[in-house]
Design goal:
The chain has 259 residues and is of the alpha/beta class. It folds into 2 domains: 2-62, no CATH class; 82-252, Rossmann fold (3-Layer(aba) Sandwich). It has helices at residues 11-14, 63-66, 97-112, 140-148, 158-170, 195-205, 220-229, 243-252; strands at 2-3, 6-9, 28-35, 38-42, 47-53, 56-62, 82-89, 118-124, 128-136, 177-184, 207-214, 234-237. β1 and β2 (6-9) form a beta hairpin. The longest helix has 16 residues, at 97-112. It is globular and about 35 Å long.
Length: 259
């Protein structure tokens, strides 16, 4: 639709082209460039590529670039109880503010869950550590203490940590929605398993993986792939100060009704 010389593309305009694993897109204002019969719309917040030929519109929104501004992604809402696993990078590069902000964000996520939901916490460097096994949110104080006890060291066994999270969630009772939030500021450099194994196991166990890429060194492309292939949401934080907003957003939407 047009508004005073500008074009605004909304999720309504995009319709079914967003695909089954994509959720409603934020409205984006775009600059317009015309080359022949091709209309190209570009936004700094959301990358849009729209080809126009007659009445046919082919549109694609890359939500990952929206997250580049610190805007959290839109997570699906679930109607039943949730079993969640927070998988947190504690490698050496997370020392200081990054890990401190990740701890606070993780606790914010826990506070958003309902009393009959479950949560577990896994932290990882080179080794994988189950900081808290899966337990009901009624034991929130125990979960918070486990999160606060996470300390930095080691390299980044990212895929192995994700697989540990899937294994924890795979035994959750039928009827529970299984959700993982996987945070890292780097690239995998210490896993025995591959990312393909992680994705395959998550699909088989019906685990939705929301990924969070922190800073410029995170493996953004692979984290986005993991989220896309498991019906999760990819989030990008340019600085750790944005982590709490991302975790809060994901937590609040665990039980938000899906459109």
């Amino acid at each position: 639709m047009k508004e005073k010389g500008r074009i605004v593309i909304s999720s309504t305009d995009l319709g079914a082209s967003a695909g089954p694993s994509r959720l409603p897109r934020p409205t984006s204002e775009a600059k317009v460039f015309t080359v022949g019969n091709i209309l190209l719309l570009i936004s700094a917040a959301v990358t849009l590529a729209v080809l126009v030929s007659g009445a046919t519109w082919l549109a694609r929104v890359e939500q990952a670039e929206a997250a580049a501004t610190g805007t959290p992604g839109v997570a699906p809402g679930f109607t039943g109880p949730v079993s969640a696993c927070l998988v947190i990078d504690r490698s050496g590069s997370m020392a200081g503010a990054p890990l401190a902000d990740a701890r606070e964000g993780a606790k914010d996520f826990i506070r958003c869950l309902k009393s009959d939901d479950e949560a577990a916490v896994v932290d990882f460097g080179k080794d994988i550590h189950v900081a808290s096994p899966r337990q009901q949110i009624g034991n929130g104080s125990s979960l918070a203490a486990a999160i606060d006890a996470i300390q930095c060291n080691g390299s980044t066994a990212l895929w192995d940590a994700g697989i540990e999270g899937v294994d924890i969630l795979s035994s959750a009772a039928e009827g529970r929605t299984r959700v993982m939030v996987l945070l890292t500021d780097g690239m995998n450099n210490a896993s025995v398993n591959s990312v393909e194994t992680l994705i395959d196991k998550a699909k088989k166990a019906k685990v939705v993986i929301h990924t969070v890429a922190l800073g410029p060194s995170a493996d953004r492309n692979t984290l986005k792939r993991i989220a896309d292939e498991t019906s999760g949401v990819y989030n990008r934080a340019q600085s750790s100060s944005q982590l709490r907003g991302i975790y809060q957003n994901l937590g609040k939407q665990m039980h938000k009704a899906s459109p």
